[in-house]
Amino acid sequence: MGELLEVYEASTSASLAQYKATHASSISDVSGYWSELAKSKLTWFAPFSEGLSGSFEEGSVSWFAGGRLNFVGKENETAIIWEGDEPGNVKHISFHELKNEVCKIANALKSAGVTKGDVVTLYMPMVPELCYTMLACARIGAIHSVIFAGFSADAIADRIQDAKSKWVVTASAGSRGGRNLPLKTICDAAVKKDRCVGVVEKVFVFDGKGETGSDWEVQDIHVKMTELVAAQRPVCSCEWMDAEDPLFILYTSGSTGRPKGLVHTTGGYALFAMHTTANSFGLSQQTAASTDGPKDVYACVADAGWITGHTYIVYGPLLNGCSTLMFESTPMYPDCGRYWDMVQRHKITVFYTAPTAIRSLMRFGDEAPNKYDLSSLRVLGTVGEPINPAAWKWYFDVIGKGRCAVVDTYWQTETGGHVITNLPGITPMKPGSCTLPCYGIEVVVLESATGKEIETTEAEGVLAIKQPWPGMARTCLGDHQRYLSVYMKPYPKYYFAGDGCRRDKDGYIWITGRVDDVLNVSGHRIGTAEVESALVAHMAVAQAAVVGLPHEIKGQGICCFTTLTDGHTESDDLIKELRQAVRTQIGPFATPDMIIPTSALPMTRSGKIMRRILRKIAAGELDSLGDTSTLLDPSVVDTLSKKVEQAR
Ligand code: 6R9
């Protein structure tokens, strides 16, 4: 991705110099900076005694120790604007209604035996009940573990087992893009697997739209949630949580096959979600506490099943007292104007989506966005992967009409919220760069081989963070060693993000992508090892090597090379079966783009698969293969590139 020379100046008087001064003072005393904010922004039942304690190295970071809190909201303003799958199927839910619904669900969960510290797995469509249930868990101190509704029964079962989750909440069905999502059927299949039998005590099933899926056959496990909730009182006192008590876990892919459950805390995460939402989208003056002046209509159209939804649909906006839009459908339903139709109907001011969605809409041209009134827009956000300058410019020109800031927010499931982004009206923008660190975040670039901090402004290496911040994940559920070895040990004294980056002469950060075996497909993180293990579980597959493939819309596609076991031969049917195997083990969003059965993979003499070479072959970059002298049999390169050519 080439750097564009243009710099888009910010449009207000707030200056870059001011940002730099605030940032410098925030990182000179991170403990003081975040403690002041925690005192002024959150409501504490018991005050905390200490800001930051602990260190990256020991994996003992703790924020606001001893403080006790839960979240208390406002009353009459709109909290959630829910836009259903069919355009115009809209509900407005006030903070008052939200609190009532949350309390009723909290009581329902309690009546069934859910207690503080229990993990509650949520496998839900994008309906208000998902948000209510997350907050109901928070209210009673239960730990929610939301699983994206695109995951398969196998993937759900793995996560239930890993978290020893006794409780599962789902809906009979959902709908997305006019299609039925048989969530209860998928959940039932997960819960019936051996590894979940004896773990799961109850499956709470909300009435959903569409078909009810399988029968209510397992009566002692299933609870008709809509009925149970209706019977509850809308009052439920909240559990006063320690700042460091877990708020939720969220599974994400790493470079080994097993997804890891990252643990986020109550106090630190809440503050970080609240603060970054207000700052990155410029909400602070308009919504927080003040009742006059124009209100933002804030819309993050991600799925609540990923971290973006947790922080920037649910916790961030609601903690700021800002209304939040929940979008059940897809950008293509019923046509490619859906987002812009929503912007016009709801007068959306802040719109937050992913580069993959922008690229797929851009293909259809300017006609759809030009049909709608987009003048309410003020800030456009992007997240999930680097945005290519062409897509950035389309977003800026055609959607924002050249008047809106485009905030390119870099962060991760692990960071809890934004760590690098421009601030609207403050940071001059460069298309494709996530620009400068957020307040309170000290970003450094390290030499990848030595771990040495690069002191010059212009730098190229791996991205790391030098001081703890409140929103960081504290551990991997049940496996603190893994947490240490993935994030804290690769570069001692630093948090290692797993991304490569370049810093330009102005100190702007350009993310160059993952430096581990994690793919980013349409903004979804997928570990190559997860796909490989799904493939080798098939009896026809002897060996599998999965690499990323440049993809125009998705950013990266999935390319799988497999050798076959004796007695199996290549065929279109086999390729179909293997594709299906990945969908069954992980979910449809991980469907491979290319499967190449082969008699041999490029191996080193010592028996290692050379993925570096496979990545080049998949990308068709044969002129930059690099050193191939360690290859056992150089002729495989030719054979495989011919096959890739044919498969394209
Ligand atoms: C929020 C989220 C994290 C990975 C991250 C990086 C990539 C996210 C980005 C970006 C360039 C941005 N990433 N935002 N790369 N520019 N603005 O996506 O979390 O699913 O955990 O993925 O996504 O590679 O390491 P998650």
UniProtKB/TrEMBL annotation:
AMP-binding enzyme C-terminal domain residues: 530-608
Ranges for domain Acetyl-coenzyme A synthetase N-terminal: 19-71
One Gene Ontology term of the molecular function aspect: acetate-CoA ligase activity
Catalytic activity field: acetate + ATP + CoA = acetyl-CoA + AMP + diphosphate
Record's keyword terms, sorted: ATP-binding, Ligase, Nucleotide-binding
EC number: 6.2.1.1
Residues in AMP-dependent synthetase/ligase domain copies: 75-469
GO terms for biological process, alphabetical: acetyl-CoA biosynthetic process from acetate
Family: Belongs to the ATP-dependent AMP-binding enzyme family.
Identification of the protein by name: Acetyl-coenzyme A synthetase
